[in-house]
Amino acid sequence: MSSWQEQVAEAHAEVVNDIKGKFKQFSGGPSVFEGIKAFCAAVNWSEKWIIGLLAIQLILFIIVIAFRKKPVFQASVFFSSVAIIFNAERINSLAARHWQTFATQNYFQSHGTFTSALLSAPLLLTMFTVLINYLMEMVLLMVEMKRKELVYKARQRGKSGGKTAPTRETHGSNKKKLIDSKMD
Question: For residue 10, with 0-12 CB atoms within 10 Å meaning exposed, 13-18 middle and 19 or more buried, which class applies?
Fold first, then answer.
């Protein structure tokens, strides 16, 4: 390699190492995987209220899937979830004040990681499922409407003896011809 190519390669390596160093400096904390691992280790998963909360979330998710053809039910679940998530900060502060009555340790810190992970995140997943269900229903309705439109147009062509149904432009010109012929 020539000297200028070596200099460019060295400069590139220096820039990459500098970027890596700055990234480590700004991130400052553990990686996402390490954070999840630490969170899972810190929680006592055998507490009855945690098992109950997770069971309720799972049952709600299964019910949403089972009642996917009931739009009123889906909407009520969606907006109830919105209300709960909207009030998650209040729920977290209330639980932080009274944690001794139902938990063995205080999971409810001021930034609400525990409440977000065990209450809000599953509800967001359920809400996302409701939205996907609404999108699927919308697509099915659009396909059904297009089929009905095509059947209607085919019937119109059949009634006109194989001719296409008159459009606005031809229909308007036929009216004008009729009016002109009556005036003569």
Answer: exposed
